[in-house]
Prior knowledge:
With about 325 residues, this protein is mostly helical. The protein has 2 domains: about 5-190, no CATH class; about 225-330, N-utilizing Substance Protein B Homolog, Chain A (Orthogonal Bundle), CATH 1.10.940. Helix 11 crosses helix 13 (about 250-265) and helix 13 runs antiparallel to helix 14. The protein has 16 helices and no strands. Residues about 320-330 have low confidence and may be disordered. The radius of gyration is 24 Å and the shape is elongated.
Amino acid sequence: MLSRRLLRIKTVKSLYSYFQSGEESLSRSEKELDTSIRKSYELYLMMIALIGEVAEVGRERIAIGQAKLMPTEEDLNPNRRFVDNRVVAKIEASAALADAMTRCRVSWKGQEALIKRLYQDMSAAPYYKRYMEAPEAKNEREAFAADRRFVTDFLSTHIEDNDYFEEAVEEMSMFWVDDISYCVGLAIRTIGFLNENSADLSVMPMYKNDDDKEYVETLFRKALVNHEEYFGYIDRFTKNWDFDRIAFMDKLIMLAAITELIQFPSIPVKVTLDEFIEISKYYSTPGSSVFVNGILDKVVVSLTEEGRIAKSGRGLIDTTVSKEKKSTHA
């Protein structure tokens, strides 16, 4: 399932796209946000299925070797540990994964060259050689654990920070390239739940629940509808700055944060501040997190005095000190 942080990031990026393009259709922008979220989920499914595609290349190589006119001993008696990997077999046989990918209409079809290159790189890697040459496990549980560890090693070693893989994925969908690391993590988490007795994969849903779907839709819509008012708070506390010269992404991150502070009574203030400050570290300029933290702290005080922040339930937790400020006082 897609985390609230990713939903916040998707919202900020969609706000950026909306303002930069001069888009005036709220419904069209909401559809684009929905597409962006759906594409992330599709990539998560693709990351799980990828190892099966690579294993199929291995099986083809074995078949080619055995079909030679003069096969070697290695051709006739290949090491099948990878192609017979127990975790790979469960992934390939997963009805839940197959159904989800069919519904989303995604597959690795047409990416044969990419899959073959991944197989070649993997088969030359030290962790692959250790896995293939390791002695037989003492029991099925240990054997399955070793197979599972190999699959997660493949994802963390050959997919994250892989330039040619990123290029190929970006060509498949412009929505995917920034989500590779996150989706790899989700795939590893899903595979980590598998054991030798698992009947099928527990494929995560796109949203944890209906609340998350409503949350991201409301956050985006309310930010756009109220952006002039909420920008006013930012302007008020940046009087010594040229508002037009403040990093645009900083403005949008603070816009989304103010929207969440006001519109979501059940979300603690500290959660909102920490989440958007963290986002600013990765999606804005160096030093943005300190700037965003300082402005949002002032905005929180003002909104509280005006009675605009009215928390309830878990939102009543004392959360007025952000992570950046807390670390400053430590």
